[in-house]
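Per reviewer request, we include the raw input and output of the structure prediction for the construct analysed in the revised manuscript.
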Amino acid sequence: MRTMWKGSIQFGLVYIPIKLYTATENKDIKLHMLHKDCMAPINYVRTCSKCGKPVGNDEIIKAYEYAPDRYVPISEEELTNLQDEGIKSIEIINFVNLSEIDPIYFEKSYFIGPDSGQGLRAYSLLRQSISDSNKIGLANIIIRSKQHLAAIRSFGNGMLLETLYYPDEVRSINEVPGLADVLAQNEKKELSIATQLIEQLTARFQPDNYKDDYRQKLEALIQSKAAGIKPEQKKGTAAAPNVVDLLAALEASVKEAKPKRKTAPRKKKTS
C-alpha cells in the first residue's frame, strides 16, 4: 500500500509520527476515446484560447478569474506561504460524538499507520483512548495544497482519518425547489403503511451483500467482445407503471415484501 501523506498527529504535547494510506479505491472501468476509422486513441493537446498555440507545462500558471476575462495570477510560492509551518502536523482540536456528525459532511477515508517503531507506543495509546471514549478527534490537515477538516477515529486495530467538508461547502437543502409544501402532503394511513414497509425491509448492514451490478455486466461484456463473442440483444424492458393510487401502491409493496412462510413437512402416518 503506497504512502500518500507523511507527518504526525499532535495529541496535547504528544507528537505521533504517522503515514496516511488511501482507504478506498474507485473501481470504475475506464473506457478510452478512439478514432472510429483508425481505432486509435485520441490525443488532447493544451492550446491557448487566444493565440491557438500549443502550451507546455512550464508555460502554464495559476490564476483566479475575479471578473469576466479578468484574472489575477497566483504563484506556487505565494500558495506555499499561505500554509502554516505545521503543514505536516495534525493537531487534534476537539473530541466529539460520531453520531453528532451528519454523513453529508464526510468526504474521503484514509488509513492511519504508524511511521516508526519509536512512535508505536504513542500510536497505540491514542487508538485505545479514542476507542474507549467512544469519541472521535477533530483536526485540520492540508492534503495536496487544500486544507480539510478531519475526523480521527479508531478502526479495527488501527485508526482512520476521514476528511470532512467545511460547513460553507455544504449547500442548504432550502435551496432545493419544491420543498415548501412537502410536509403537508402526508396522509396518516399512507404514512402508517410506509412505516410498515420500512420495518419489513429493515436488515442488518452487511457490506458483502451489496455489489456493483453494472460494473460486473460491463466486465462480462468486455470479456465477451474481446473473445469474439457477439453480445446478446437485450429485449425491450417494460415501462414503469404509472402509479396514481399511492395507497394501493404502498399496500401492494407491503404484500410483496412479506417473507414467505415456510411450511413444515407433513409427518407420515405410522400404522
